[in-house]
Amino acid sequence: MSTAEEPAEAAPEERANVDERVSQAIAEAKSAALKALPRSRRVHDEESAHQRLAKRSGRSNTAFGLVLEGLETAEAAERAERALEAFPNVTATVVYNPGRAWITAPDDINPNEFIEVLKNVGIDSYLTRSTLRRRATRLDAAPLRRPSVPAAAQQVTEERIRRREAALRHSGVNSEVLFTARELVTKKRFWVSAVLSIPVIAVSLNVAWQFPGWQWMCAVLTSIVALWGGWPFHRAMVASLRRRMSALDGASSIAILLAWLWSMSQLILGHAGTIGYKTSPTWFAFNYRESAAAEVFFDVACGVTVLLLTGRMFTRYNRVRSGQIMRMLRIPAERRVTVVRKSAKSAEPKRLRVTVAELHIGDDIVIPPGAVIPVDGTVIGGASRIDAQLLGIGNEPQKVKVNAKVWAGALNMDNELKVRVWRTGSKTRAAAIARWLRMAIREETAVHQTAVRSASVLVPWAFSLAVVAFGAWWLASGTAGGAFAVSLAILSGIAPVALAMSTSTVQRIGILAGANNGILIRGNDAFRALAKSDVVMFNRVGTLTEGDMHVLRVAAEDGENPDLVLRVAGALMMESNHPASAAVVRACRVSRDAGSGGGDVPHWIETVHVEITEDGAFVGQVEIPVKDSEGKSELRFIEARVWRPRDLSLLSERMAVAALGGGAPLMVSWRGKVRGVITVGEDIKPDAVESIDALEDMGVDTMMITRDPYPVARRFADRLGISRVFAGIIASRKAGAVRSVHAGGETVVMVGDQDVQDCLRAADVGILMDNTEGTANVDMERSDVVALRNTVFSVPEAIEISRAVVRTMDANIYIAWFYNAAVLALSITGLIHPLLATLLMIISSLFIEWRSRRVSSRRKHLFKVKLGRW
């Protein structure tokens, strides 16, 4: 026996020796690897992550966010707060709902210590995602890169944007360099130039007022006006030439300088400088006298300068100011707000003034009347009216009270509100809208740059034509003054600014007008596709109906229990977040709590192996009472199925009639037999019928796509007046249905929520209906159009705005080209004076801008159908 036991006793000792050798080999390998690495890398590997972070941060404190689990009472929250603040130099705030702890602690404290302390008081916790991401970023970043100021991230981003814009301006990539700097066109420059130009023009046009030496007075005054008053235009011309481009006001700048230089040369080198020289005004080039001793154009130099300054003070071609909207949507991180917090050391709540960047989820803030709400949240105290029209929420100020949602960027109008923070910073609805607008305007800016560069080509062509016309007129008429007047008229009359503004200005105004109405339209492609749309296709769920889905009726086959049918469906659909599934689950819980169905229906139904098939059916094993061959009931796991029928012909007459009773039918079956049908439905949006009528009156065909069988879908569509129906289409095939309509030659506008994003991308234009009222999970960045108001009327309104924008853009282009062609023809033939040509050029630019701005002013008069909106 002893010899047999020796190997058994030696085996554990041998295994221990092997383990020791393996551990030693691993340690030697690690040591060799560390020696092969640079010293800095070896030090990092020998230190823990939080120690390296403490060395690299360059700051004394850092912030942690913890998600708390098991926080069931306010007393537990206070106990957790006291435990955290037991650490030296640590401050903590624990928010009972939604279970968060916000901690400020020295950098060298490991966050795991906080987690262990909370675990000792019965609370499980872990770091929030934002905290983990922030710590990882700081660990990877170079030391001292993060500025030690509040709202560092936002400030760094804003500074980066400013540097990028400055680099674009200096590099000449930005088309704004082709425009005259607006900050130089001041009222002082205008009024000084106007006052000095009045005597010059008056004396030049009235021979009786031409006293001895008048021309020298005009020379002095014109020099100030032409050089100092016209400096913004000369500066733009020189800057554009340095970049080998042509400023849009370059031709006018050349006209001013040439008129001044010509006149000064006549005074100094010609006979115009003699005392007693007089000249009479000449309005047409062919009226200039061939024998005239000299011709001066001081009045033209002054007049062109003053008219240009006047026009540029009224026009805003540099930029359609979207600042009003962007300023309201932007909540500065450094803005201070009043927050109500309760310290663990004193049970009484205190009001503190903190910056928006220091707010946490779950904080309670006080919003005084007249202030802009800085966060998305829920009202927990007070009642007031808020104006959230800019955010697409309501068309008039809305009354809010306890439990009502409020949004960042909304204006509190009447009384003080106490709001619990739900989302802050970049996650708010206002921030999402602002990002979308910046992206749309950035795309519009690219189109604007192309238009500006195209329009700037007119300047060198006009200069070349002016040189040719000067030579031709001089040879034909023999009068240099008349030839020079023709050249000045050509240079003063062309309007590249009007051409550059013809599309970009109206497009940006259309974007901002839509945003101000709760409709975000991306840019030129979306405008044109919407304007020529033939078909608007609605996904039934989420666009034509509103409110939560609810169960309308539960019909069971003969011999089946309707409550059991509902319970089986609820058990299979428990994990789905689809509105129909949520409706069934809610109805199932109500039935269970009420004890409906009697003893034949189990209180809880177990499910296993539940899955969703490709056609959207719920299939799984459910444990329900089943009768055996002797008629006794026993619990068994059997396969059950819940699906939406595409063809009612396979159902029994009883089930088919129930499916057609109204709402979307859900069939429930087990053991291969249909046991009942559940119909779910929503309320039709109040503006749906009128909006469909408006689309039909606009010549746009309406279509609905749904998974319901055709009889159900057709009945629903008839209630709204929808022309065509695509019925029985499962979710995975809806995008193909949209493509099939497009393949038929029609321009398709698809309207749906985030559940049909594939369909939105498959259409010519996808209109995302924002049903979440928050944009947190909405892919706005990939959508052509976003309807923030969640009303059907947004669709015809977006189409009509797009049509107005496209009509205005096309008409502006025709008008701009017609004007430039007409003024060149009149100037070449000598039928137009340079001053009149300048006046016409200013009028054309202002007219184009006026037509563009009408898109915004007329948006309230787009429809005869009012819907109570205006």
UniProtKB/TrEMBL annotation:
<feature type="transmembrane region" description="Helical">
    <location>
        <begin position="457"/>
        <end position="476"/>
    </location>
</feature>
<feature type="transmembrane region" description="Helical">
    <location>
        <begin position="482"/>
        <end position="501"/>
    </location>
</feature>
<feature type="domain" description="P-type ATPase A">
    <location>
        <begin position="336"/>
        <end position="436"/>
    </location>
</feature>
<dbReference type="GO" id="GO:0043682">
    <property type="term" value="F:P-type divalent copper transporter activity"/>
</dbReference>
<feature type="transmembrane region" description="Helical">
    <location>
        <begin position="254"/>
        <end position="272"/>
    </location>
</feature>
<protein>
    <submittedName>
        <fullName>Cation-transporting ATPase</fullName>
    </submittedName>
</protein>
<feature type="transmembrane region" description="Helical">
    <location>
        <begin position="190"/>
        <end position="208"/>
    </location>
</feature>
<dbReference type="InterPro" id="IPR023298">
    <property type="entry name" value="ATPase_P-typ_TM_dom_sf"/>
</dbReference>
<keyword id="KW-1133">Transmembrane helix</keyword>
<dbReference type="Pfam" id="PF00122">
    <property type="entry name" value="E1-E2_ATPase"/>
</dbReference>
<dbReference type="InterPro" id="IPR036412">
    <property type="entry name" value="HAD-like_sf"/>
</dbReference>
<feature type="region of interest" description="Disordered">
    <location>
        <begin position="37"/>
        <end position="57"/>
    </location>
</feature>
<feature type="transmembrane region" description="Helical">
    <location>
        <begin position="292"/>
        <end position="311"/>
    </location>
</feature>
<feature type="transmembrane region" description="Helical">
    <location>
        <begin position="811"/>
        <end position="828"/>
    </location>
</feature>
<dbReference type="GO" id="GO:0016020">
    <property type="term" value="C:membrane"/>
</dbReference>
<dbReference type="InterPro" id="IPR023214">
    <property type="entry name" value="HAD_sf"/>
</dbReference>
<dbReference type="GO" id="GO:0055070">
    <property type="term" value="P:copper ion homeostasis"/>
</dbReference>
<dbReference type="InterPro" id="IPR008250">
    <property type="entry name" value="ATPase_P-typ_transduc_dom_A_sf"/>
</dbReference>
<keyword id="KW-0479">Metal-binding</keyword>
<dbReference type="InterPro" id="IPR059000">
    <property type="entry name" value="ATPase_P-type_domA"/>
</dbReference>
<dbReference type="GO" id="GO:0005507">
    <property type="term" value="F:copper ion binding"/>
</dbReference>
<feature type="transmembrane region" description="Helical">
    <location>
        <begin position="214"/>
        <end position="233"/>
    </location>
</feature>
<keyword id="KW-0472">Membrane</keyword>
<keyword id="KW-1278">Translocase</keyword>
<keyword id="KW-0812">Transmembrane</keyword>
<dbReference type="GO" id="GO:0000166">
    <property type="term" value="F:nucleotide binding"/>
</dbReference>
<dbReference type="Pfam" id="PF00702">
    <property type="entry name" value="Hydrolase"/>
</dbReference>
<dbReference type="InterPro" id="IPR023299">
    <property type="entry name" value="ATPase_P-typ_cyto_dom_N"/>
</dbReference>
